[in-house]
Amino acid sequence: MKSELQGFIEQCRTAGQASVLIGLTDLDGIIRGKYVDLKKLEQLMTAGGGFCDCVLGWDVDDHLYDFNAIGLDMEAPYTGWHTGFPDVKYRLIASSSRTVPATKVPFFLGEFLEDDSDFHPLCPRSLLRKANQLLSDQGITAVTGYEYEFFVANESVLGMIEHDYSKLRSVQRGKLGYSVLKAATNSSWLQEFQDYCREFDMSVEGLHFESDPGVWEAALNKRDALKSADCATLFKTFAKSFFRSKGFVATFMAKWSMNFPGQSGHFHFSFLDSNGDGVFSAHKKKLNDSCRFAIGGLVRYLPEWLPMLAPNVNSFTRLVPGAWAPTYASWGIENRTSAFRVIEDGNGGCHIENRVPGADSNPYLVGAATLLAASLGIRERIEPPKQVVGNAYAGHQTEKEQKFSPSLRDAAQRMMKSQSAHEVFGQKFVEHFVASRMWESHEAARNVTDWQLRRYFETI
After folding, report:
1. DSSP strand E in 38-190: where?
2. If you average pLDDT over every residue of the chain, what do you get?
3. Does the global pTM surpass 0.90?
4. Strand 49-52 to strand 98-99: parallel, antiparallel, or no bridges (unpaired)?
């Protein structure tokens, strides 16, 4: 390891690179990081490092959680004024090495660690790695892929702030989903963006325009669960960086406008056995036991763990009828109105698409929740309800347990009461993560919105 590290450092020096960029992902999927010089990199790779633990106690606006202020009768268990903000341990993942396009700066992802442990209860990547290990103990390897819809605005960051994020202009005009005309007209953009993603080792297997102006959809190449989530996390951050370098702004909000249906972050997965053969199969729309039980686990558990898939107040504006997003834990074969879609490969195999997450979701948490729910379904042999045929929004009888909570606050309260969540993810994660979602809901409730002004200013 040390000789490889020394070789890497020498390559950096030869190339004129004096520092590298490192990043660690917080609960909201935001990569927090810094530049370190090559001497520091050697130290981090051999002995690990420490990072101010406020990054585990910040919300998306860098406000420290104050759980007492929202009536939870608890202090933030890991960080706050009462702890003095010590360092949290972390390590860099050598296999995550890649080079940031254009700048050619080396980049490494890292993981938070708890004292005397190989994991950290609040580290999203650590949580997915633990889920991966549990699957491995069952003799299962997960192959996963993410796809994201995102909107590109013909605006600068400063311009959006000055106009208070109103009347945003799209980089394109008009609708026409999957348009070859749009693709041909914007061919240089598409090629440059795909080359950028390929160079950064987060390559896109498919890229197209959605029907709404300025909305793109990117399907990332499928890989093993950890590498796939790494790529998805990097994609969400560095796609924004790419478009900012062009004078535009990209957003992965679940729903940024009432004129748009919403932006998804679908998660595709399949399981392989120890021989590398597919665990799921489908023949003439009849699923084998493993696939059926996996769906049973998704239906049974994900409504209770919904904040891991829909982590923000804005997430729930997408989970409504007619927005190409599910409203309860349903499933169907090749049915895009259901929550969990079985996709046959034509050769007797199949994989499952989780259509619940929005583009705003944290890839590591989506992966951990989905894979663990499916594996529990197989282990517990959970039979799913009858599949949906046709429109899942149209009058189907739904069990109370299958329904999604209507708001982040309700979903968070449900997860806090979930015995399965505490057993699977641990009490420390559930309490802190759920409290952070309650904080997010509280912050939204105490702020005046444009909708409130338009509705009440003159008439009330």
Report:
1. 49-52, 87-92, 98-99, 106-113, 141-153
2. 90
3. yes
4. unpaired
